[in-house]
C-alpha cells in the first residue's frame, strides 16, 4: 500500500499560491467553457447513441460523444495526419485556456511555462487504424507518426510545441484521478520556479478497440435509455457511461498572475492522493489530507463534487467517505458528470472547472438522472435544478481511478 501523499514537492506551509487564470473545455454537452457551463446549468445531457462507429453489435451503445467538433477548425492541416482525436481535442482546449488567461507565452521567461496533462488511453483510435493497416496491408503501410501519436504524453508534447511552452513538461497516468493529479504536479512545478502551467486532462477512446477495453472492465451500464443509463448514488444504478473530453486549465503563480493583471477564477488550495489497500478504500483519507494541505476544516467546505461511479458498491463507499467527513446530508454534493459520462482522466479536471465556475457564479450545478439518492447513500445530493442561496467559498473535488487511485482537491473562490 502506498503511503498517502500531499503535494509531492513537499513545499512548506506558506508556499506560493497557485491560481487558475484560464479554462478550456471540450465536453459532450458543450464545446467551449461557457457553452458547456450553460448546458450544465440547464441540466442538458451529452449522453446519446454512439455515432463515431457502428456500435449495433455491442451490448452498450451509449456514450458521451462530442458532436460537431471539426478538426480543421482547431488544428493546423500539417498536424492532422500526425494526431489522434484526443490530441486535437486537447489542442482546442489548451488554446481556449491560454486565450482565456490572456497569457502570451512569448512574453514569459523562456523556460518559465510548461505543460502537465493526464491521460488514460493515449491516442487509441490512431493506434487502431495503424494496427488495421499492419494486419491488412503490411508493415510498410504503418504511419511513422504511430511512434508518438498513440503515446500518453503526446498531448503535453503537442501543446508545448504549438504554444512555445519550453518549461517543465510531463504526463500523469492514474485513470480517473489523473485530472487532479496533473494539476497537483503543475503546482509542484510552480513551487519550483515556473510561472505558468497548462494542466488538466482530455481523454478520448470512442473507437472499437477502446470500446472493447471499456466493455472488458464490466462496469458500463447496459441500460439503453440515455436518461436512465448513468445514475450516480441511485438505488437503480447499474454502471457508468463512458465519454470523451475534459478540461485544460492555466495555473499560475499568484504573484506572477497579479503582476500581469490576470483575472483569476480561484486558487488550488489543497490536494492529496492515496491508494486503496486490500478491502480498504482510502478516498476519505485523500479528502482529509487535501483539507489539511489547504489549512481548512470540513466545516469550511461549501460543496462537494463527487467522483460518482454509478455503481452501487462504489457509490456506497464514496457516500461513506463523504459522511465520515461531513455527517449524513451534511454538505451539498453534486455530480455534473452525470451529463457527460465518465471521461476517464478528463472527468476530474472538468469537475475542477465546474467547481471554479460554481464559486464564480454562486450556483451549484445539478446531478441529472438520479431523482433521489439511495437510502444507503445519505447525501444532500443536488438534483433536478441548480441550487442557489448558499454562499460558496470552498469546493472539494473527489476523483477515483481504476486500480485504486484516489485524489482530492480543494479550490477556493478568487
Describe this structure in words.
By secondary structure, the chain is α/β, with parallel strands linked by helices. The chain folds into 2 domains: 18-260, 3-Layer(aba) Sandwich (Peroxisomal Thiolase, Chain A, domain 1); 270-412, Peroxisomal Thiolase, Chain A, domain 1. Helices cover 32% and strands 19% of the residues. It has helices at 33-41, 71-74, 85-101, 124-137, 146-149, 154-163, 178-191, 208-217, 254-259, 283-294, 312-326, 345-361; strands spanning 18-27, 30-31, 47-49, 62-64, 113-118, 169-172, 196-203, 245-253, 266-275, 303-305, 332-334, 380-381, 394-401, 405-413. The strands form 2 sheets. Strands 1, 2, 5, 6, 7, 8, 9, 10, 11, 12, 13 and 14 form a 12-stranded mixed beta sheet that branches. Helix 12 links the parallel strand 11 and strand 12 (380-381). Pfam families: ketoacyl-synt (PF00109), Ketoacyl-synt_C (PF02801). One of its GO terms (molecular function) is 3-oxoacyl-[acyl-carrier-protein] synthase activity. This is Beta-ketoacyl synthase. Belongs to the thiolase-like superfamily. Beta-ketoacyl-ACP synthases family. Residues 15-413 form the Ketosynthase family 3 (KS3) domain.
